[in-house]
Amino acid sequence: SVVAELPDDIREKELLLAAFSRFVVVGADGARLHEEVLIAARAVPPSGRSRRLELDERRYEYLRRAVEGALDPEACEASPVDARAMLSDLWPQVRGPLMGDVDTRTATRAQALARDLERRMQEDLDRVDAVIEHMRRSLEVALGERQRLPEQMSFEDLDREERDQVERDREAWKARLDRLPEDRLAERAAVERRYRGMRTLTFPFALCLVVRPDPAGVG
Question: pLDDT, tens digit, for every residue of 56-100?
């Protein structure tokens, strides 16, 4: 519970109640695709209904900076006792709407992330293709080199064990080369499942009550 300058849309005598939540996006395979801390905010008057702050991105960043600045250890100032008592009295009425604000903020952020995650999925698919293509070229080069052997050496110059090892290597590389199209499809399918089956998880973890500074300089 701290004192700080509030956005202009917080009316006189209203308190600002901010809820912090950990927002995580995970893929169908459990991979963490995104994580950040979100803030949902509600204006709380001394009496009557509280109201959600409708925040566009610019105003949201202003709110975030104001709240985070107020929590800075060098600037942190405890709010008056009566403000905390007021919130305690109003909490049963505020709790439900505030949790709804957290859900709304989560949904808004998830929608904004959709395009970025779609781009990341395509980057991952392109990466799969690049890795498979690199492996294909490497295997083809290796097979070609085994077929040619160094000029000063022929296959007949090798002893039986070395010949067998050469043949085993070539067979393994050829089998791996033949499997690459199947591996590519499997890897691409795994990437698509990861992103198409995404889930958003929200973990509220802290509340911050913000009060305007007393014009008379009284804390």
Answer: 666 777 777 777 776 777 766 777 788 888 888 888 999 999 999
pTM for the structure as a whole = 0.72
Helix, strand or coil, per DSSP, at residue 149: coil
Cα first-last separation, the chain: 12
Burial of 173 by CB count in 10 Å (0-12 exposed, 13-18 middle, 19+ buried)? middle
**Which residue blocks in 50-159 are alpha helix, DSSP H?**
57-70, 81-148
d(CA 127, CA 143): 24
Judged against a pLDDT cut of 90, whether residue 21 lies above it is answered with yes
Phi and psi, residue 178, nearest 5°: -65, -30
For the chain, state the CA radius of gyration.
Answer: 30
Determine the 3-state secondary structure of 36 from DSSP. strand
How far is the C-alpha of 56 from the C-alpha of 48, rounded, in Å?
Answer: 25
Residues linked to residue 24 through DSSP beta bridges, in sequence order:
35, 201
Beta bridge partners of 21: 38, 204
